[in-house]
Amino acid sequence: MTITQLQQQITQLPPDKLRYFADWFEDYLDAQWDDQIEDDARAGRLDEAGRRADADFEAGRCTPL
């Protein structure tokens, strides 16, 4: 199935099925994002950002949320 065919099929869904698909797809994308962050953390790709954040905090360059 091509992306165009998939898009066509999605436009044919009734509203209740479209909402179900949208919710599922959002959950799917969230899980993909979580997996990517975990992979990046394990590989050390977030270490430098963490060091900069720690340095900013220690230097008082952070504000409470």
Which structural class do you get from the secondary structure elements?
mainly alpha
Number of E strands: 0
As a whole number of angstroms, the C-alpha radius of gyration is 20 Å
State the separation between the terminal residues, measured CA to CA.
46 Å
Protein name: DUF2281 domain-containing protein
Organism: Thiorhodovibrio winogradskyi
Layout of SSEs?
Elements: H1 3-11, H2 15-42, H3 47-58
Protein name: DUF2281 domain-containing protein
Describe the structure.
With 65 residues, the chain is mainly α. It has a domain at 14-58. 75% of the residues lie in helices and 0% in strands. The chain has helices at residues 3-11, 15-42, 47-58. The chain is elongated and about 55 Å long. The N and C termini lie far apart (46 Å). It comes from Thiorhodovibrio winogradskyi. This is DUF2281 domain-containing protein.
Short key terms for the protein model shown above:
65 residues, mainly alpha, 3 helices, elongated, DUF2281 domain-containing protein
Summarize the structure.
With 65 residues, the protein is mostly helical. The chain has three helices and no strands.
